[in-house]
Amino acid sequence: MALLLAMVLLRVATYNVHSCRGLDLRMKPDRIARVIQDSRADVVALEEVRAGQAQSIAEKLGFNFVFGTADVLGGYEFGNAILTRFPIAAHENYPIGIPNREQRACLRADIDVPGMAAPIHIFAVHLGLGHRERQEQVARLLKIAGPEGILLGDFNEFTNGKVNRALVAVLKRSPKRTYPGLLPLFGLDRIYVDDRFTIRSQRLTRSWTALFASDHVPLSAEISVAGAAPNAQSDKEK
Questions:
Q1: Pairing relationship of beta strands 120-126 and 172-173 according to DSSP bridges
Q2: Cis? peptide before 147, omega within 30° of 0
Q3: If you write DSSP's letter for every residue of 164-189 in order, what string do you get?
C-alpha cells in the first residue's frame, strides 16, 4: 500500500541588508522589517547585519531568530542572521574566513516547520569579495552544508562561475538577477535547495521601500517538499 505524504509549502528569502543603511544613508532596521513583511517570507536569511539589528527586526516581525558573528567591525558584531515565524530547534555558527581578510561565517538553524517529521536545515552565508577567497570558502561550505537543506545568501559572484558550479553539482538553483536593487544586473543573492525540494516560483521584492532600504533587494522563493505522512504526524502529536 502506497504511503501518502502531505505536501508542505514554504516561502524562504535571502536579503543583504547593508547594516540597514539605505540609499538615503539612513540606518533604519524598522524599514528592513517592513520590506521583509512585504516579502511574506516564513524564513529569511539576513547578511551584513549587526547583532542588535537582527534582534530589533525579529521583534518587529514577531519572529524567532538566531545570529552568527562573522567579524567585529567598528565595535559591532557583524554577520548573518536567520529569522523565522517557526520554532528554531537548534543552531550553530561556522567560521569560514580567510586570514588577513574580512571574516565570514555560515550560520545553520534547524527549523521546526509544521507538517515536517524532522527539522529543515537552513544555512545563511555571505562569501568574500576575492575570487580565490570564495573558492576556499565554498569548499568549506560544502563540508558544512553538504547536499542537505536550504542554502541562502550573498555569494558575491557576478557570473555563474566556480562557486555556482561547485554548488549546483550537489544542490539545485533557479537563477535570478538581484543586484543592484535599483536595476538588477547580477545574481549575487541566491537560493539553493537539495533534491527533496521543488522551487515553484521566485520573486524580487521591489517596492519603493525595498528600493531604498538597502543596496540589495530580497530574493524569495516558494518551495514545496513532501512532509510527514498524516498518521506519522498524529503519532508525533500524541
A1: unpaired
A2: no
A3: HHHHHTTSEE-----BSTTS--B--E
The rounded distance, in Å, linking the Cα atoms of 96 and 48 is: 15
Place of cell 568574500: 128
What number of other Cβ atoms are within 10 A of residue 133's Cβ? 18
* pLDDT one-digit tens code per residue, 170-203: 999 978 888 888 888 899 999 999 999 999 999 9
Domains of the chain: 9-226 (3.60.10.10)
Tens digits of per-residue pLDDT, 105-154?
999 999 999 999 999 999 999 999 999 999 999 999 999 987 789 999 99
Q: Write phi, then psi, for 207 (nearest 5 degrees).
A: -70, 170
Go through 222-231 and write b for each residue having 16 or more CB atoms within 10 A of its CB, e for each that does not.
Answer: bbebbbbeee
User: What is residue 6's DSSP assignment?
Assistant: -
Distance CA 154, CA 17 (A): 10
pLDDT tens for 209-228 read: 999 999 999 999 999 998 87
Cell 549587526: give the residue. Answer: 50
